[in-house]
Structures are given as C-alpha cells and as structure tokens.
Specification:
7% of the residues lie in helices and 42% in strands. By secondary structure, the chain is mostly beta strands.
Amino acid sequence: MCVLVLLASQWGTNAAAKNPEEPETAIPVGSDMDFLDHDKFGPFWLGAEANSILQVNPSFPSTYNGHNSFGVQPWDKTRPWSAQQVPRGQAEARISGLATVFTAYQPTRTTELILDPEVAVGGGLSTALGVAGYTNLDVVRNPALSHLPYIGRVEVHQLIPLSSEWEPNEDRGPISSFRMVPRHRLELRAGKMSTADIFDINPVGSDSHMQFMNWTVDNNGAYDYAADTRGYTYGAVVEYQGPRLEARFGLMLMPKVANGLVLDWNIGKNRAENLEVEIKYSRRSDWRGTLRLLGYLNHAAMGSYAKAINDAEGLGLAPDITASRQNGRLKGGFGINEFQELGPSFRVFFRIGWNDGQNESFAYTEVDNTFAIGGDVRGTHWRRPDDRVGVAFVSNGISTVHADYLRHGGIGFLLGDGPGCDPDPITGKNICGPVAGSYLTYARETIVEQYYNFHVWWGAFLAEDVQLVANPGYNSDRGPVWVFSVRGHLEF
C-alpha cells in the first residue's frame, strides 16, 4: 500500500506530461491507458505499474482445522496442535502491494533487451494457505521472503523475420515493445522470465491487475508451470508467430524444492518442457476467437503421494511428502484454453486442465484437474467504455492418491486440512485428529468470482471484487468462505 501511495504522489507530474488540450476520448478504446506516452521514448520502453489489493473474509463454518487450513493464523509449533483449535474459521483482513518497473531497449529493429525490477509488500489472507484456488494472485506464496526489491525479468528477445511484410504489433507492451513486427516470424527468448507471460494466456482471464484476482481463474490451476515462489524462472523459448497459427516451445528450470526460491540447474534430471499451439479464427474485428492447446512435462525432485502414504502406514505418523522426494520424477499434463469475442462489448473464455496427480504439487498450486468458464462486458452500454465487469466460475479437483495423502494428515506447500498429530507422552506415537476417528470428507473446490474495474482517469483504476469459495482446500467440513476485495491500480 505504501508503494501505491508513493506512486500516486507522482500522478499529477506524469499526467502533466500529456497534452492538456487532448480530450480523454482521444485514447482508443481497448488500448493501454496509462500516464506515459511510450511512443516518445524512441528505442527505449519505460513504464511501471503499482497494484494494491485489500481483502477481507468474515468468519465461516469450520468443524475443525488442520495445520494449513484457511482461516487459521500462522502455526505456533511450540504449542500442542489440539490447543490451537478454534470453533470457526477466523475473520481476517490483509493488504498486498506489488510494484514493477518495466524497461526495455532495442539496439536493433529485431532485438530487445528487457530488465524489470519489482517489489512485493504486505501479505494475503491466512498467509496464502488453505485454498488451492487462492484469492489474490499478487501474494507471494512464502510470507517469510524479504520485502526488498528484486529482479523479476532479465530477457533477450530476438525476432527472425520469415516474411518481408511488416505490420503493427497488436501485443505491444512491456514484454514485446516492438512497434512493428514481421507478419510471419520466429521469436526467441532467453533469460529470467515468467512462464505465465508466454504460455496459457487469455485476454479475459490472465491479468490480476485489471481483471479477476483468483489464481485458478487467471491461470490454469492444473498447469504446474515452472517458477520459483515469486513466479519467475530461467529458461529459453522459441516461437513461430503468424496471422492464423502460433506455436511455442519452452525449456524452463524447476525449483529445487516445492515452492522454493532456489532454482535447480541440473537440467539433465530436472526441468520443465512446455509446448503450446495457438489457432486463431473468426477474423472479423469484433468476433475474433483463439484456441490454445497446451502440453507440459515436469522433471523435478518431487515426492510421491503413494510412497509417502505407504512409508507412514502403521507407524502412527502423518505421511510426509518431503521424505519421499527423488530427482527426475515426472508430472505431465495438458490444458485447453478458449477465448471468443461475441460482438464489440462481450467476451467469454473457458479453460480445462489436467495433470496425472501422482507426484507432489511443486511450483504453482495444489490442483490436478480444473474447469473454468467466465466472461466480461465493456461498459459501453452505460456510457463507461473503459470500465469492465466480469464473472467467472471455476471447479478444482485433485487425484485420489493426492486426496488420500491430505486425508491422512499430510501437508503440501499450500494445503493441509487433515487431522493434526500430537505425540503421546507415554508411547511417543502420534495421536492424530481433533476428535478420535475424525477424517476429512473431500469434495471439489468450487469458486465464483465477480469484479467491476472502474477507470478513474488515464492510468488510475479502482475495482471491487467478490469471491465465494466452497469446500476450501477440498474440505466439505469447512466453508463456504466469502472474500471481499478492493483493488487500486496505477499504470505508467
């Protein structure tokens, strides 16, 4: 929030750089609306954005709580598990802030160098634990990380023309600042990047700063894409781009441990391979559509759910996925991503995702299969053409063995509603469960989200957002949970 306030103090200075006689309607509908004119920087791209989200959840029904349950404050390991039970999920309010500076330089017509420093402050509800479809994509998944600035992206972006015809870059922005691009081309990228910048993009559901906020609405929840805990990795991507068809392949580094900050450079055993084909159709200006087909295969030092359960069986212990980790374990999955315009104001999307769910959720979230559908409407009909209102529904699930692991008290890097365990003072064996014989009843986690994004002036936006989460953490004994949000966004 402090970052948002500091950047807001520069509002008048940046706005004054624009022509004061230029009417606001001169900004084309659907274009980037911000405080800076990026065409004035020559071969340089300079921009920034600041995003701050306040979220509140009232208390909610909870028969019992586990170690990583939503609505439970950070765990105090010095106290017995049974002494930390509360009759309901706790009410809470948290605020997050994320600010990024975007810089790029084009030494040639076909080469771009990208450097983006970033800072993340604040935190999320329940320290980002207890819900697979978490409610704020800006939140760092490890609250113990420093709030000091860090480098998000360091990339070399190279175009290789395959045709002599050049055209305006429809996707011009911080990660592709070229004004003109060849109609048919190869694009090569290498360096530190976000896998989600390039794969599984959807114009309706990919931007938590201007659209939905939920992890599994803005991304395919079953796509365990390579990333450290801040959402970045090192890798290389090669793309073919044309007017009707695109195809891309990326080789990325996986983290050394689940949700870890340190990446694994042992690419002979551990890596992520991503392949996506994009088909564009309905080329009318107000009826465009895109189908994206994604496949991925992760190689990482993942634990096996089945082995963790078998190793703990008969010992009176909760299974521990970290004890079964082994280099080179595989997780494969696919995604289907559809976007469709329905006239000048209405857009819809859906995603389907699946992974095998046999080995540990490692980089994104604990989802093994998902279905999401939603849409947005531009405010043209109520004379607010730069506003948008959106609604989405998502249903997340996990594999049978993943559910068994959590049911027996296992803990993942996000979830853990299973029975907690305390050592018996006489036998030393663990006694599990808040009540003898109580185990969780797992059900699909379903989420409905609605937002209204209000364009205040040039690069300033405010939004309200409401999310209803049923069966948080796949636990039918908890929830539903209401989450109410207010977002402030500045675009430079």
